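Tokens in:
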């Protein structure tokens, strides 16, 4: 099944970032279906995300774009969302991390015969980088709501 990490730009208000993340998820699902239909990916290797777990993170989106574009993502698939209303600026990325690769209970990489040894450190770095990011929070909205609601004395 796997986890879908939704990397949202830290330049955005959390509510708007969540909306942009939703667009990235939709783009990811469309691209997955098209790739599988074209025979580019095998569903038998769990290349497809099946609506299992979604984790929203707030990140430096430009840094992540460069990182993923330079990463040998043989075992990771991702889709970018560029918002047309803001000049096609990158606002979110949906990144699938398959259960085939990670044992989520032990939080360790699985030993895979067909995974080249040189790729293992790169995948560990990716997971460490994901774990270092913050969850998307609506703290700014909470603050706005608290300030706008009068509590009777």
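Residues out:
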């Amino acid at each position: 099944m796997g986890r879908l990490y939704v990397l949202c730009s830290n330049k955005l208000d959390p509510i708007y970032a969540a909306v942009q993340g939703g667009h990235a998820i939709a783009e990811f699902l469309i691209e997955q279906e098209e790739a599988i239909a074209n025979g580019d990916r095998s569903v038998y290797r769990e290349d497809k995300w099946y609506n299992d777990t979604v984790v929203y993170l707030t990140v430096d989106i430009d840094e992540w774009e460069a990182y993923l574009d330079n990463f040998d993502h043989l075992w990771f698939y991702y889709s970018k969302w560029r918002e047309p209303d803001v000049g096609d600026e990158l606002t979110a990325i949906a990144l699938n991390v398959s259960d085939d690769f990670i044992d989520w209970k032990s939080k360790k990489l699985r030993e895979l015969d067909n995974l080249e040894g040189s790729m293992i450190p790169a995948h560990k770095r990716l997971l460490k980088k994901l774990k270092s990011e913050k969850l998307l929070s609506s703290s700014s909205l909470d603050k706005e709501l608290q300030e706008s609601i009068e509590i009777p004395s």
